[in-house]
Design brief:
Number of helices: 16
Number of domains: 2
Organism: Asanoa ishikariensis
Order of helices and strands: HHHHHHHHHEEEHHHHHHH
Family: Belongs to the 'phage' integrase family.
Distance between the termini: 95 Å
GO biological process, one term: DNA integration
Shape: elongated
Largest sheet: 3 strands, antiparallel
Strand order of the largest sheet: 1-2-3
Strand content: under 5%
Helix content: 55-70%
GO molecular function: DNA binding
CATH superfamily of the largest domain: Intergrase catalytic core
Structural class: mainly alpha
Pfam family, one: Phage_integrase
CATH topology of the largest domain: hpI Integrase, Chain A
Length: 359
């Protein structure tokens, strides 16, 4: 009996010594066990509503439908139960069930979004201490390989045709032309344009504050002509509201993304190639950034686009980032108008300073 007690004490001493070497206390082991025990009671039906309240509206919009699908399939199951194989099987099922549209790509995006939705869920579960990072099953499932984008830069002739079609159709061509010029000059995304407020305009320096995806914000140069058009638009439709949306319909309602959908449907009806190739607002971003990169270099194009420096870009990129006055100089070449930050007036004909200020 004494020998058994001695062996027990020796083993206990070895374990305590190992814990001390690892910097772990017995109390931490107990807490960890309690945490993992609580994780065993967390089901998808219990955890997803909590997650819903913790993420941004953008994440809810993208991942929400997939979280609902996950709850329909696994709602009663604990979040620690699904295996990587089960996740892969569900992704393939969702890929097969994806709605077939004109721009469909075999359900790859649907499968990718499902895996991203699960990675988001398990990332928060790890932060909550509900499971260890090594036990994250979604991290072990590869996303479908993305195919090359079919978007490309438009030619001058195509861009002019789109402008003419927008100006000749619809119930508010003035608004549509203003939208097109805004996107061509700034290469902004739809979300950045829709988020604009009157207080985001700096008429003196001809800058607008673009707030886009990922919570990014940047001051983007625009031409004096476009600044005048935006100010006139606000004076006519804004009701002196400085904090509300800048872009509005004639009845003062804030613009929504549906205006873009209707715009491209109308332009596509006039120009069959627009409908066939699924041209959208993002093609304007491709067009402008391609022009800027060809004429002003990669660093200026990157700053023009508002892209965040990647983590693995290397130290050199820190020293060669373009400044705002260089973006303004590129804009001056693009539109043919002098900008307060440069004073240059070298035109390459993309914009026409002699027009009425809309396009």
């Amino acid at each position: 009996m004494t020998g058994a007690t001695d062996r027990h004490q020796r083993h206990l001493g070895m374990v305590l010594g190992l814990l001390e070497e690892l910097g772990i206390t017995p109390e931490q082991l107990i807490e960890g066990t309690a945490t993992m025990t609580s994780a065993a009671t967390a089901t998808f039906d219990e955890y997803v509503p909590r997650l819903w309240e913790a993420v941004s509206p953008g994440s809810r919009r993208v991942y929400g439908p997939y979280w609902k699908r996950i709850c329909q399939r696994w709602g009663h199951r604990r979040i620690t139960e699904p295996t990587p194989l089960e996740i892969k099987q569900l992704a393939e099922e969702i890929r097969a069930d994806a709605v077939v549209r004109r721009n469909a790509r075999g359900g790859r995006t649907a499968a990718e979004h499902l895996i991203s939705a699960l990675r988001c869920l398990y990332r928060h579960a790890v932060l909550d201490g509900l499971l260890h990072e090594a036990d994250n099953p979604a991290a072990k499932v590869a996303k479908p390989r993305r195919l090359a984008s079919t978007r490309r830069a438009l030619t001058d002739t195509q861009l002019s045709a789109i402008r003419e079609a927008a100006a000749a159709t619809g119930n508010d061509p003035e608004l549509d032309c203003l939208l097109l010029r805004l996107h061509v000059e700034t290469a902004c995304r739809r979300g950045g344009a829709l988020a604009l407020r009157p207080q985001d305009l700096d008429p003196e320096l001809c800058l607008i504050n673009l707030r886009e995806k990922g919570g990014t914000s940047r001051w983007q140069p625009i031409s004096p002509t476009l600044m005048g058009s935006l100010n006139s638009h606000h004076s006519e439709r804004g009701r002196h509201d400085l904090t509300g949306r800048l872009l509005r319909y004639r009845d003062n309602r804030p613009l929504t993304s549906r205006r873009y959908d209707h715009l491209w449907q109308r332009v596509g009806a006039e120009l069959p190639w627009v409908r066939t190739q699924q041209v959208s607002t993002h093609w304007l971003r491709h067009t402008t950034l391609t022009w800027v990169e060809r004429h002003c270099g990669y660093a200026v194009a990157r700053a023009f686009a508002g892209h965040v420096q990647p983590r693995n870009a290397g130290t050199t990129l820190t020293y060669v980032q373009a400044e705002i006055h260089e973006v303004a100089a590129a804009l001056s070449q693009l539109t043919g108008e002098a900008h307060p930050l440069t004073g240059s007036n070298r035109s390459l004909g993309v914009g026409d300073a002699s027009n009425d200020g809309t396009v």
